[in-house]
Amino acid sequence: MLPLLVIVALLSFGSALVLPWRVSLLPAAHVHLALAMGAMPLIFGAMLHFIPVLTRSGAPAKVLAFLPLAALGAGGMAVYAFVRGDLLSPWLHAAAGLGLVAASFLAAWEMKRGRAMLGDPHPCLHWYVAALACLALALLAVAAMPLWPAERLALKRFHLHLNLLGFIGLTALGTVQVLLPTAAGRFDPKAALRLRRGLPWALAGVVLTAAGAAWWPPLAWLGLASWAGALFPLGRDWLVVYRKELFAWHGAVPSLGLAVLGFGLALAAGAVSSAGAAHLFVLGFLFPLATGAAGQLLPLWLRPGRQTEWHEGVRARLTRWAGARGLLFLAAGLVVLCGGREGFLFAVAGLLHFAVAAAGAVANRACTQ
Questions:
Q1: For residue 369, pLDDT beyond 80
Q2: Closest Cα to residue 264, out of 275, 249, 253, 280?
Q3: Cβ atoms of 160 and 278 closer than 8 Å
Q4: SS (H, E, C) 176-236
Q5: Quick one: CA dihedral 327, 333, 336, 337, positive or negative?
Q6: Distances from the Cα of 20 to the Cαs of 31, 92, 329, in angstroms?
Q7: Is the Cα torsion angle 215, 217, 223, 224 positive or negative in sign?
Q8: What CA–CA distance (Å, rounded) separates 74 from 327?
Q9: What pLDDT score was predicted for residue 40?
């Protein structure tokens, strides 16, 4: 399931970049192709992978595999509605309903696992629950649009920010604080405490920024200040503990570190240009995050169980020049932010570089079965 979701995400990301050059579609179609069809199912699948680790419990029941597929179906219906150009399509409300059901089931399962374990769950679990709550609220905003037509634009902005900063942002920033030490091979002594202290700041940042973008802009500035309470300690601690790995050319660590930098820059850019900031978020944050995380995890997903030389070899190929690739993604986002469409070509080049390595890993797995 997870390797398939990685492939779907790469195809969705690439299509969202290339289609605007060839086909005239609503911008929402490209955005939902990348985020709803690409990122959302992959995040659901990654949560199913990480939650047993965070709660020290067994693998999820196979029936739960329907959750990423439901997310993929919801994303597909949303893209179909926007491709048709119908902003009032019943497909949009069906997509929101299906996504809400899937998010609710996943959140309920997460909380059940957390309550069942001995001792306290890893604090990253709370970031996941908060992220799914933001997704649910964003989907409810879609359902409210036809009931509150005068506030349609405000609800659209609220929906977008809850998804970008809440669902994707909280999931990512929680996960990287667990994943980066694994990729670096060294323990982060402050990770658990930082996750506990950082979640209230980050969640307040999400809500204030989303509400400010929708209804009262001064709230968005308070949201940016609140985000600093979560991001500054993270950057400070990583530069102390992982400075060498962060400034390397190879490995998953520089890509994950650049993703966090891209997130911070996208937040800052949002105060100037919301459209440009959204592009920077996707290109400079989501792309290095997804490729860096997949480079670290794809060998495990392709061949679960004991880690061997095969896993290390595939991981090394997937993350070779990952630092340079992350810089390319970040440059792409900054160029687009400044109005240069050629930045999209940089992003396509970075995705192709990773896709070739990922295709080789999948082919290698098939040949060695």
A1: no
A2: 280
A3: yes
A4: HHHHHHHHHCCCCCCHHHHHHHHHHHHHHHHHHHHHHHHCCHHHHHHHHHHHHHHHHHHHH
A5: negative
A6: 11, 21, 18
A7: positive
A8: 32
A9: 96
Each residue of 331-359: b (16+ CB within 10 Å) or e? bbbbbbbeeeeebbebbbebbebbbebbe
Tokens standing for residue 331 = 């440059």
Residue 366 has pLDDT above 60, yes or no: no
Q: What is the mean pLDDT of residues 261-268?
A: 92
| Structure-token match 């911008």, residue found | 27
Amino acid letter, residue 351: L
SS3 89: coil
pLDDT reported for residue 306: 85
- 87-88-92 Cα angle (round to 5): 80
Locate 117 and state its tokens. Answer: 């374990």
Closest CA to 314 of 350, 352, 357: 357
> Residue 275 is which amino acid?
A
Share of the chain above pLDDT 90, in %: 68
Return the number of other C-beta atoms located less than 10 Å from residue 216's C-beta: 11
Q: Give the H/E segment covering residue 29.
A: helix 27-32
CA distance 94 to 119: 39
Q: Residue 244: exposed, middle, or buried by beta-carbon count in 10 A (0-12, 13-18, 19+)?
A: exposed
Q: Which of 218, 138, 143 is nearest to 170 (CA)?
A: 138
Q: Is the dihedral of CA 185, 188, 191, 194 positive or negative?
A: negative
Q: What average pLDDT does the segment 76-84 reach?
A: 91
Closest of 84, 81, 105 to residue 95, by C-alpha: 81
Task: Answer yes or no: are the C-beta atoms of 88 and 146 closer than 8 Å.
Answer: yes
Give the list of residues 6+ apart from residue 72 with CB closer than 8 angstroms, or none. 5, 8, 37, 40, 41
